[in-house]
Amino acid sequence: MNLGELAYPDVPQGAMHLLPLGATEPHGPHAPLSTDTLISVGICERAAERLTGEIPVLVLPALAYGVTRYGSAFPGTVSISEETLRALVTEIAAGVGPLVLVNSHFEPEQVETLRSTGLPLLDLTRRRNAERLTEEFRSGSCHAGPAAIRDGRTDFVAMGMDEAYCGAPAESSAEEGRATFDTLTDLLVELIREVAT
Fold first, then answer.
1. How far apart (Å, rounded) are the C-alpha atoms in residues 42 and 193?
2. Which of 96, 112, 114, 196 is the 20 to 30 Å CA partner of 86?
3. What CATH number does the domain containing 85 carry?
4. In a domain, 108, yes or no
């Protein structure tokens, strides 16, 4: 369930809350500025669906702004400071019940800020999680596959970092994207179960 789509009488009590975190930054000329956020939302929605009947889960409206300095030279980048991110996340956490942070924006300052909150975090930069992901994802060139699943694009053109991304998105496939999302969902479901016990 997505909290923002519910009327207040329909909000279940005692649910686990998931906060999708991303950024508004370029991911090449082939992908939307909201790629990180779309990935986080997709992981959250899949985990909530998978846990139906086991653990009540509410997906909060996504926080689509993050600490984004690497992409600052490109149009469309919107960055917030570490202090603002920390304040937003901790104040949101104080206003809801149990909460898990689901972050798909891996800029080091973003990750460190989220870790510093002490809140449960799906941290895909931790070795134990990263080892379960594809080499494409671990390399930081991972946006093409999952983004392809979100918007159905298959017309990627391989370009260089001067276009705000690396990797070879033209080589991605829907199958790779689905497999990546399945693994990301497994990792989040495991974390939710751990936090819920």
1. 18
2. 196
3. 3.40.50.10310
4. yes
